[in-house]
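User: What would this chain look like folded?
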Amino acid sequence: MKIILTILILIGLGAGAWLFLGQTDEAMPVPEERETPIESTAAGNVERIEEEAVPETEVEVVEQYKNETIIGQSVEGRDIVAYHYGNGDEDILFVAGMHGGYAWNTVLMAYQLMNYLEGGPDTIPANTRVTVIPVLNPDGLYKVIGKEGRFSATDVTMTLAETIPGRFNANNVDLNRNFDCEWQQNAVWQDNAVSGGSSVFSEPESVALRDYVLGNPPEAAVFWYSAVGGVFSSNCRTGVLNETRTLTNLYADASGYPAYEEFDFYEITGDAVNWLAKLGIPAISVLQSNHDDVEWQKNKKGIEALLNHLAQDA
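Assistant: Here's the prediction, encoded as structure tokens.
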């Protein structure tokens, strides 16, 4: 009897458990299937946040914002590069390093501008574009720096007198005497006789700039040189353009440099900025105060004044 009773009790308990479990399964809701699985790890959560924070269109804008063009090569085969920032129609051109290693601080000025512009699209008005040619005379720069690519002031170990050969290109031509405005083969720099080239635009560096400008005429242009300390209007014996005079005064007022109607300290022939004036393109020369300092803060104010002016005119 005890055996039979034990069996009956076990059977009863099993049935009760079965009924309890069956009711529990029906009472618990089945979780809905998610279209996107929830990430359970911290790393997974970070990945999802980053994906949401950086839309594809933002990446595309950054890629379109900056690009570069090789506009030519120097006598010794070094690339001359133009860097473009922004997508606007109003293009302003900045050129440095015309006199290579003799005016190496103008190249550092251009690098400073490029660093500033690479801060993002908000650094320039939406309807403008900035083009920077940091080194028009790379062979002359190499004579002094002795290295390719970007450099710093600490890389310059020569005295000013020792940098003079770096003013000229590898053909010993002063590039700023090789453009089509009152060009002369036998030119001068201060009290020194210099070569203006065998003919106008005889040098590959000046040809590179000529072809770029003719193919992509800018709304305005700024050239950096050393070293007087001032802003000079361009003029190829036809009078200063009204817009050129405006740009000269804007840059001078903002930067603190004095403004000059023209460069008349000594005779200049074949000048690049004056050639732009001959084409009807407003252009100014900004001469640093010396051959050692970049004077970025002064020039930054001048640059911003020009950018804002062009944006208002667009």
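Confidence is low (pLDDT under 50) at residues 1-63. If you want, I can go into more detail on any region.
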